[in-house]
Amino acid sequence: MKPTDSELEILHVLWANGPATVRQVNDNLGQFREIGYTTTLKFMQLMHEKGLLTRDETARSHTYTAAVNQADTQQTLLDRFVETAFKGSASTLVMQALGNHKATPDELAEIRELLDKLTK
Amino acid sequence: MKPTDSELEILHVLWANGPATVRQVNDNLGQFREIGYTTTLKFMQLMHEKGLLTRDETARSHTYTAAVNQADTQQTLLDRFVETAFKGSASTLVMQALGNHKATPDELAEIRELLDKLTK
DNA sequence: TTGTTTTTACGAAAAACTTCGTAGTTATTT
DNA sequence: AAATAACTACGAAGTTTTTCGTAAAAACAA
């Protein structure tokens, strides 16, 4: 279960908005970048074959649903990324992420809370 | 400046050990996985062309050096990754990373320190 | 009912990435 | 000196990922 970048784009749309047709997903993606309808269609068909999406074919325009959980998927990707980009050092990654991506005070507080839990 | 996974493998060797020949890098990689000498050679030649590595050709066996900084490169990769996998939410990534990759108490303390600095 | 739009399925080209074989050259060993 | 080993350069094949065009079927509009 290692979705490619394009597959992730689509998963994000479905995770955020729930089940959708190819048309809906394509319209959504189209807001951010140039992408042909059949390109989106093909991706979603492939993702269906791979088991990344399920689909309801009762209507002529099929409705697709994410078949993989967002948190789990992100965790898998993160594991791989920590390995390839940070040689397994998660704490280095965390510090880089904290250092250069501004988080809101709320988020920082939440992270601190988690940190407390881990430390105790 | 977007090294591929294979290129990253090589950069990690050079970052960790300093300048090296193809033979040295290949021996290093060979410890972890099956990889032909000319495969490593080709990668390093391509990376040289791309400007990822510099090389000293005075000796017959060329010595290659990483031409890109480790922290900068990781930051770039991280930015891209936060975008594609976490839709820009660095704090979600940080929490997932903290949650599932055990960090040592020392590392957690270091992270807390950084957090303090960011919060003040 | 005839033409237009919408949608799926299929195939395949294009691009990016990985991997290695071969040829030629230079060094080393016997 | 001849054989062997080490290296570079080059080309190309194999994979994976991205992107569409076209055809056929179904729905809709005139």
Put the structure in a nutshell.
2 copies of one chain form a homodimer. With 120 residues, chain A is mainly α. The first copy, chain A, has helices at 5-17, 22-30, 37-50, 70-86, 90-100, 105-119, and strands spanning 20-21, 53-56, 63-66.
3D architecture notes:
The structure is a homodimer of 120-residue chains. The first copy, chain A, has six helices and three strands; from the N terminus they run αβααββααα. The first copy, chain A, has helices at residues 5-17, 22-30, 37-50, 70-86, 90-100, 105-119, and strands at residues 20-21, 53-56, 63-66. In chain A, a hairpin with a 6-residue loop joins strand 2 and strand 3 (63-66). A three-stranded antiparallel sheet of chain A has the order 1-3-2. Chain A is mainly α and 120 residues long. The A-B interface holds A 5, 8-9, 12, 71, 74-75, 77-79, 81-82, 84-87, 90-101, 103-105, 107-112, 114-115, 118-119 and B 5, 8-9, 12, 71, 74-75, 77-79, 81-82, 84-87, 90-101, 103-105, 107-112, 114-115, 118-119. The first copy, chain A, binds a DNA duplex (30 and 30 nucleotides) through helix 1 and helix 3.
Topology diagram in text:
The structure is a homodimer of 120-residue chains.
Chain A: H1 5-17, E1 20-21, H2 22-30, H3 37-50, E2 53-56, E3 63-66, H4 70-86, H5 90-100, H6 105-119
Antiparallel strand pairs in A: 1-3, 2-3
Helix pairs in contact in A: 2-3
The structure holds a DNA duplex (30 and 30 nucleotides).
Essential attributes:
DNA-binding; 3-stranded antiparallel beta sheet; homodimer; 6 helices; mainly alpha; 120 residues
